[in-house]
Design a protein that fits this description.
Layout (H helix, E strand, L loop, with lengths): L1 H23 L19 H13 L5 H13 L32 H14 L6 H15 L19 H7 L7 H10 L4 H8 L6 E3 L22 H10 L9 E3 L11 H7 L6 H8 L5 H10 L1 H16 L22
Antiparallel strand pairs: 1-2
Helix pairs in contact: 2-4, 2-5, 3-5, 8-12, 8-13, 10-12, 12-13
């Protein structure tokens, strides 16, 4: 009799073991995956891509703007689309934070993407996944790498204005500070250099680099690591007491193409932002060798960039029953 009961006991033991293991490793089931919408919205990626293709026809910089939204979102409470929320009585929008105000853009295109997705698959695709998908589409449409976007993020119920002001790397702070901000979200120096390569396309306002043009760090002189020819051009474009909102290309050579020219620019002191040029001009920094390798090998840069985008997209996502799937990316459901 005891012998016939053994399989039942073994079965119970195995079931118990599975329950114990699943409680220990339960988070694994909540991790992002590439096929999250395969049964519920199989055309999600194609819808995102076609909407961006349409937007590019009238706005060549929209790709860079969309990837910047994803970047600025992920560094504040993780990749949860909190950057997309508008001000309400109870929410202080991250759009008003220093790194975003008057510069974060592309919200209308995010809304267009979300509308198209809601028409195809109502209530299925999160706004945080929209930002991740839009980043990949923007890069590949500009000639850059493609990668498999991991999906399954959910959307936050609130925003973090203070966090946006303190956690997003600034173009005018030291490389050591920026490295610390990357480290705080689990990204390393290789991620820092690779993701900075997104400045191979897009624009920047005079206000984020005019600190280098006339009185750098209180010296009374321009930034010595700024190429003299570029300096003259920028001083004319952004005169002292001129408009801080005038824009210019981040990449002098191929401003709308996603390539490795950004890194070659750094080697000739043609980085536009202080935070860009510091990657190559900070004496003794481990970033110099990475810049050099990416400048000489575009394939290496593309591979590193794709992996670093996946790494960034994995920062503290809301999954399972946390958060919600917003129906309108600008506001929490029911508000």
């Amino acid at each position: 009799m005891a012998v016939t009961n053994l399989p039942t006991c073994d079965g119970l033991f195995i079931i118990s073991l599975i329950v114990i293991l699943s409680s220990i490793f339960g988070t694994s089931s909540a991790q992002l995956n590439a096929t999250f919408y395969s049964g519920t919205c199989p055309n999600a990626s194609a819808i995102v891509r076609s909407t961006i293709q349409q937007a590019l026809q009238s706005d060549t910089r929209i790709g860079a703007s969309l990837i910047r939204l994803h970047f600025h979102d992920c560094f504040v409470n993780g990749c949860d689309a909190s950057i997309l929320l508008d001000d309400t009585g109870s929410i202080q929008s991250e759009k008003n934070a220093g790194p975003n105000v008057n510069s974060a853009r592309g919200f209308n295109v995010v809304d267009n993407i979300k509308t198209a997705l809601e028409n195809a698959c109502p209530g299925v695709v999160s706004c945080s996944d929209v930002l991740a998908l839009a980043s990949e589409a923007s890069v590949s449409l500009a000639g850059g790498p493609s990668w498999t976007v991991l999906l399954g993020r959910r959307d936050s119920l609130t925003a973090n204005l203070a966090g946006a002001n303190s956690s997003i790397p600034s173009p005018v702070e030291s490389l050591s500070n920026i490295t610390s901000k990357f480290s705080a979200v689990g990204l390393n120096t290789n991620d820092l250099v690779a993701l900075s390569g997104a400045h191979t396309f897009g624009r920047a306002r005079c206000g984020v680099f005019n600190n280098r043009l006339f009185n750098f760090s209180g010296t009374g002189n321009p930034d010595p690591t700024l190429n003299s020819t570029l300096l003259s051009t920028l001083q004319q474009l952004c005169p002292q007491n001129g408009s801080a909102s005038t824009i210019t290309n981040l990449d002098l050579s191929t401003p709308d193409a996603f390539d490795n020219n950004y890194f070659a620019n750094l080697q000739s002191n043609n980085g536009l932002l202080q935070s860009d040029q510091e990657l190559f001009s900070t004496t003794g920094s481990s970033t110099i060798a990475i810049v050099t390798s990416f400048a000489s090998n575009q394939t290496l840069f593309f591979q590193a960039f794709a992996q670093s985008m996946i790494n960034m997209g994995n920062i503290s996502p809301l999954t399972g029953s946390n958060g919600e799937i917003r129906l309108d990316c600008k506001k929490v459901n029911g508000s």
